[in-house]
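Bench log, entry 3. Co-assembly request; chain sequences pasted below exactly as received.
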Amino acid sequence: MEPILKGRNLVKRYGRVTALDHCDFDLMPGEILAVIGDNGAGKSTLIKAVSGAVAPDEGEIWLEGRKVDFHSPIDAREAGIETVYQTLAMSPALSITDNMFMGREIRRKGPLGSVFRMLDRPAMEKFARDKLNELGLMTIQNINQAVETLSGGQRQGVAVARAAAFGSKVIILDEPTAALGVKESRRVLDLIQDVKSRGIPIILISHNMPHVFEVADRIHVHRLGKRLCVIDPKDYTMSDAVAFMTGAKEPPEQDRAA
Amino acid sequence: MTESAQVSVDERIKQESFLAKLMKRPELGAIAGAILVCIFFLITADPAMFTLSGVMNFMTPAAQLGILAIGAALLMIGGEFDLSIGSMVAFSGLFFGVCVVTWQLPLVLSIPMTFAFAAAVGAINGNIVIRSGLPSFIVTLAFLFILRGLSLVGLKMATGGSTQLRGVRDQVENDWLAPVFSGEAFGGLFAWLAELGVVETFKNGAPKVPGIPVEILWFIAITLAATYVLLRTPAGNWIFASGGDKVAASNSGVPVNRVKISLFMLTACCAALVAIITVMDAGSTDARRGFQKEFEAIIAAVIGGCLLTGGYGSAIGAFFGSIIFGMVVIGLTYTDFDQDWFQVFLGAMLLIAVLFNNAIRKRVTGER
Ligand SMILES: Nc1ncnc2c1ncn2[C@@H]1O[C@H](COP(=O)(O)OP(=O)(O)OP(=O)(O)O)[C@@H](O)[C@H]1O
Ligand SMILES: [Mg+2]
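Structure output for the full assembly:
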C-alpha cells in the first residue's frame, strides 16, 4: 500500500545541531502512527518539516503520492494536514473562538461578509462550543474567554479540538496530552480513536508509553535525528520500545528502517 | 440564543459584572485620563476653552496627531514600531507639493499619487524589517533620519535652494477635490445655526466657528474604521495574533508577513494624509513638517492602552490619547501656567498611563 504521507532523506540543521539526519518517514492511510524518542531526538522537527513549519534543508515529501513543497503551515493546512504543535500555536489575547478559526474565519453572508468582511461570530461561537463539548471540555464555559486566561490543559484541549475539527487528510499531534489530567487525557485518546474511525490517519508524538501502546497501530522509533525502526506494538513490550529508543538494545533486523 | 441557555452552568464561573468587564478594556485608561484632564482644565482654564470654538481649537491638533496615532496603534498591536512617521509627513508633503506646484497636477491625481508613494516607502520599511528580522525600532530609526534628510535635499532641488515650497494654495484653490482635504465642513449648517443664535457670531454676523475642520472628520472616520477592522473582521484577529505571538500566528495560519507589511504601508498612508491636509491648510510645505510627531503618536497610542510588546491595544484608546494630547497642548494657553509645562505634563501622562495599563494587564491575566 502507498503511504498517504511519505518523507525521504529529510535533513534539517540548526547551526551545528543536526536535528534531522537523512530521516525517512511513512504514514499509512487510516492508521495511528506513534512517534517516540528521547528528548531532542528530532521528533518535533520531523513533524514541523512535514507540516510546513520549517523548511527541510534536504529531502522530499509526498502527500497521497504527489510531491509537495510546503512553504508555510498555511500551505500544509490547505492540503488537509492539521497540526497541534508542542507549543500549541495560540494567540494569547484572543478568545477561544477566534483562536479556533484563526486564518479560516467565517464571514457573514451577503455584502456584510463579502464587502465589509464582517465576522460571523455567532456561527463561529456555536461551532467552537460544540467542538469543545465533544471533547468534554465543559469546564470552559465562556467561549469568549481570552486564551491567556485558560489553564495549560484547557489550552491544549482547545488546540486538539481545533485540529480534530478541521483536519481532512492527516492530523498531527505533538504531545497532545502532556499537560492534561487523567480524565482529559482519556478524552483525547477517545477523540484520536474517533478521528481514526472517520478514516483520517493520525501522527501522535508522546512520551507516555501506555498511551502509545493503547492507541498506536505502528510505532516509529526516532533516535539521533533518524528513524531507527518501526515496530508493531503487539510484537513488543513497552520496555523493549524504551530500550530501542535509548539505544540500550539493538532493534531486530526485520523491523529496521531502510 | 436558545443553545446558550442549555449549556449547563459551571458553579466555578460566576457572571462577570459590567464593571469587571469594563476594567479589562484597553481603552479604559485613556478614557479615564481624558476625563481627568478635562476636569483639570475645567477648574484651571479660562471657560473659553470649552466653548465651541475652544473645542475646535484643541480638537484640530488632536485630530492631526490622532490620524497618525491610529496608524501607529494598529502597527503596535501588530507588534511593530514606526519611528519614521514624523519624517514621512515631511517627505510625503514634499512629494505632494512637487505634484501640485512643480508638475501642476490636479488633486485627483496628486492625492492618489502621494498615497501610493507613501505606501511604497512604507512597504520598503516593512520589507526590510521582515526580511532582516531586525527590530523595527532600529530600521525605522534609520528611516527617521533618511526621510528627513531626503525631504531637505528634495526641497532644495525642487525650489532651487529654499527649504520651503510655496504656492500650493494658488494651485488647489479652485480644485473640486480641495474641500475634502482642507478647510471646514458643514459651513452651511453652521451659518444657519449662527442665524438661529445657537452658534456665537462675530459682529458682522459671520459664525465664530465656520464649520468643522475636515481633519476632525477624517480623524473620527479613521478611528471608527480601525475599530471596526480590529474587532469585527478577520484582519483584526490577524493583527492581534501577529503582534501577540508571531510564530504561533503563522503556525495557525495567519499570513504574518503580509499583515505586518500592510500595517507599515497603512501607517505611512496615515502620515501622507496628515501631510496633504496640513500642506493644503498652510499653502506650503517645509522640511520641518511632522517634526517629532512619531514620538507623540506612539505616546498617544500607549496612553490609549497599546502594549509596547504588541498584541494588545485599541483604536478608541489612541483616539482618546490624542484628544488628551490636544487638550494639554492648547489647554495650557487658556491657563496661567507657563506653556513650557507641556512637556512635563506629557511625560508624566505617558508614565502614569504605562503604569496604569500594566496594572490592568496583570489583573486580566491573573497576576502572572
Ligand atoms: N529552532 C531551533 N533552533 C536551534 N536548534 C533547534 C531548534 N529547534 C530544535 N532544535 C534542536 O534540534 C534538536 C531536535 O529538537 P526537537 O524539538 O525536534 O526534539 P524532540 O524530539 O521534539 O524533543 P522533545 O521530546 O523534548 O520535544 C534538538 O537538539 C534541539 O536543540
Ligand atoms: Mg518535541
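Residues 129 and 136 of chain B are 6 Å apart (CA to CA). The interface with chain A takes residues 1, 3, 7-10, 12-13, 228, 232-235, 237-238, 240-241, 244-245, 247-255, 311-312, 364-366 of chain B (CB under 8 Å).
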